[in-house]
Amino acid sequence: MKIRDVMKPRPWTAHADETMADAYRRMTHHGVRHLPVVDGDKLTGILTERDVMAFRAGVGESEDWWRAPVARAMSRPPQTAHPDDSVTEVAGRLAAAKIGALPVVERGHLIGLVTAADILGAEVHRSMQPAPPTLATAGDIMTRAPVTARPDEPLLDAAVRLVDRGVRHLPVIDERGAIAGMLSDRDLRDVVGDPVPFVYGASKERDLRVRDAMAEAPVTVREDRPVVELARLFADTRLGAFPVLGDDGHLSGIVSYVDVLRRLIR
């Protein structure tokens, strides 16, 4: 299967000289996290939700971030895919780089966008045809004994773990050992902006607790959940990771879309 078979043609785009406010409004209105930046139909960069949040935190109160041009926050040159690249090969590149999408370029022109969710959906279809689904389960590919947080602990302490450990998700465990929520780097950015200045700078948000930023009632999976079903779940929910529960209902690990991609392309 080729990328042209699974990509989204004519994706929403941005221009380098338009304001961050206009580009971010387009993201939220259309429910997308990545905007290829174009000059005509030539790709010049890519603006992600993370880029917007990082820029917003970086300028702080020194200027009105939303008035700044997209060119100041976008990533360039962006990694790209070709429409004739195999889905499996691009899945490996997404997993290795831990990124969520690639613009699709042919003869120098932007023709589409392929996301991790598109890839996972395609890999689910391939795994079901005609051979039986992989027997691997969440328990086989998860990270065991993941770093966690507590609902009532200072958000700053949890942010330090996210930054220092280089992870993007912390399962939140209550005093009984049950899952109370999930704290992602996106959740943290929504509340405090870029986690790095929050951790190392003189932030005004030092009194916040984990419960103020975490997502409650997270999607969880059991250790025996087949990988092919995990892929479908990631494609449907567009989440980045799920806590994995053992037979006793307590946390035993965490599984990310990157883990699933790596397993499916083996």
Report on this model:
The protein is of the alpha+beta class and 266 residues long. Helices cover 35% and strands 21% of the residues. It has 10 helices and 12 strands. The chain has a 4-stranded mixed sheet. A 3-stranded antiparallel sheet has the order 1-5-4. The chain has a 3-stranded antiparallel sheet with strand order 7-8-9. A hairpin with a 2-residue loop joins strand 2 and strand 3. The longest helix is centred in the middle third of the chain and has 13 residues, at 116-128.
- The percentage helix is 25-40%
Largest sheet: 4 strands, mixed
The fraction of residues assigned to DSSP E strands is 15-25%
How many beta strands in the DSSP annotation? 12
H/E element sequence? EHEEHHEEHHEHEEHHEEHEEH
- Poorly predicted regions: 129-133
Count of alpha and pi helical runs:
10
Overall structural class, as computed from helix and strand content, comes to alpha+beta
Tertiary shape: flat
Distance between the termini: 15 Å
**Which value, in Å, is the CA radius of gyration?**
19 Å
Mean pLDDT: 86
Spatially, the strands of the biggest sheet line up as: 6-12-11-10
Keywords for this entry:
10 helices, three-stranded antiparallel β-sheet, 35% helix, 266 residues, single chain, alpha+beta, 21% strand
Compact description:
The protein has 266 residues and is an alpha+beta fold.
Topology:
Elements: E1 8-9, H1 20-30, E2 34-39, E3 42-48, H2 49-59, H3 87-97, E4 101-106, E5 109-115, H4 116-128, H5 138-141, E6 143-144, H6 155-165, E7 169-173, E8 179-184, H7 185-192, H8 195-200, E9 215-216, E10 221-222, H9 227-237, E11 241-245, E12 251-256, H10 257-264
Parallel strand pairs: 10-11
Antiparallel strand pairs: 1-5, 2-3, 4-5, 6-12, 7-8, 8-9, 11-12
Helix pairs in contact: 2-7, 3-4, 3-10, 4-9, 4-10, 9-10
